[in-house]
Amino acid sequence: MTYMSFPFYLFVTAAFLLYYGMPLKHRWLVLLAGSIFFYWRACGSGAGMAVLLVTILTAYAVGILLERMRRKSILAGTVLLILLPWLCCKNGNYILEILLHRDAVNWIIPLGISFYTLQIISYLTDIYRGRIEAQRNPAKLALYLTFFPQIVQGPIPRYDRLAGQLYAGHSFCERTVVRGFYRILWGFFLKMMIADRAAVVVNEVFDHHDQYVGCYVLVAGILYSIELYADFAACISISKGIANLFGINLADNFNHPYLAVSVKDFWHRWHMSLSEWLKDYIYIPLGGSHRGRIRTFLNLILTFLVSGIWHGAGLRFVVWGLMHAGYQIAGQLTQKARLRAVGILGLEEAVEVRTWIQRIWTFLCVMVAWILFRAENLTTGLQMIRSMFRVRNVWIFTNDALLTLGLDWKEWLVLTASILILFIVSLKQEKGTVFADRIFGQPIMVRWGLYLIVIFGIMTYGVYGMGYDPQAFIYGGF
Fold first, then answer.
1. Coil, strand or helix at 305
2. Cβ of 392: how many Cβ atoms within 10 Å?
3. Which of 57, 188, 265, 346 would suit a FRET pair with 196, their CA atoms being 20 to 30 Å apart?
4. What separation in angstroms does the CA of 340 have from each of 335, 344, 346, 347, 356?
């Protein structure tokens, strides 16, 4: 049962009706039962559920213990214990095969382990720091860790921001429910109109990297950057929309990251819940930026090294993380030189031009790193990047070469138009436009007409129909 399946929305409908049919004080039990049912169906493994249950009980017991005995040794030992299943699932076979030259093991991989592991670490750390009180009801803690709209791939919630919303029964609010419906529709648009269609070209180039060089890699790199964002944002939009149906607001995870004016700004806008987690539980405890420039740079490197390892096993993820640390270090080291260049070029007053130059440069830097992220290994990724800069086959944009990558001209047209819509909406939202409020302010006939147009458009032009097999949400693999 996935977010793109019909049975999932039957399940959501049933949970929605049961939730608002229950007394307020018992409505959290519907969310708990729904989360357990969803996890059981989606995980497909009793062993995976057993690992999750043991992890939750451990977090519950240690949380109460930490509240009574705030000892760093207890916290450190528990964090290592909680990390062990994640380490085995995500990096075990890489260590066995590549480093130790042993046979791989068929590990039990619980659904959402990368996300709920970080939730538990933040929960226990915040208890140790005295920021929150330990949850005395294990069932309520289980709901916080397994809430079904966000367990697949986030956002990564903090206990003090989400738990209260989960346990308090919410009365039906038309505006909140309708806002949730908008977000679900937008998620389907991003997934079916952009991400799954861009994936056709991306998969063709990356899966046959020995056949495609130069501008083919550039096209695939740009489309993968868009695919990854559209795919991840789609799942988050659907997650937030479903949570809204129950009166719950999940944290924002994106703020138009490809409008960032620097890589540092990009990480304030991309996967914001993870970025905030890394800042609060890795970067700041290491000393942040308050212990001199060299120490700041070292803390950046260590933080992004953790980010790379979290995303996957293999050198390419490590190098990807280090690239982003390097980008930020280079940005700080060249800040004065860049300011002088602005003066020499006479761009002090051309704020808009300067902003777009920074946005384009930032996107290109991030895109190059995404190529390594997507490649099958580090060597392949470096070869693709090298060919992108060395091979000048620009004629592929003037002949029919791009039509050999899996999309005909009509599909390229739909993809381009959809990306353009995303771009315009992002620009408008960046300037403060709230489309949900504008739509909700229209007469009901206009609103429903718009809903039907969007639904019809997605079903007609989206990657949908007989034999449709939706691409799995990319970040679900992390």
1. helix
2. 8
3. 265
4. 9, 6, 10, 10, 18
Q: Are 241 and 229 in contact (CB under 8 A)?
A: no
Q: Which residue did the predictor score with more confidence, 139 or 341?
A: 139
Indicate the residue type of 442.
Answer: Q
DSSP symbol at 410: H
Model confidence, pTM: 0.91
CB 90 within 8 A of CB 118: no
Contact 374, 206 (CB under 8 A): yes
CA distances from 27 to 181, 249, 251 (A): 21, 16, 21
Peptide bond into 155 cis (omega under 30): yes
Q: What does the angle CA 360 – CA 388 – CA 419 come to, to the nearest 5 degrees? A: 45
> How many helices (H) and strands (E) are present in the chain, helices listed first?
21, 0
In angstroms, the Cα distances linking 388 to 85, 214, 256, 259, 384 are 39, 4, 26, 23, 6
Place of tokens 């004080």: 25
Mean pLDDT of the chain: 89
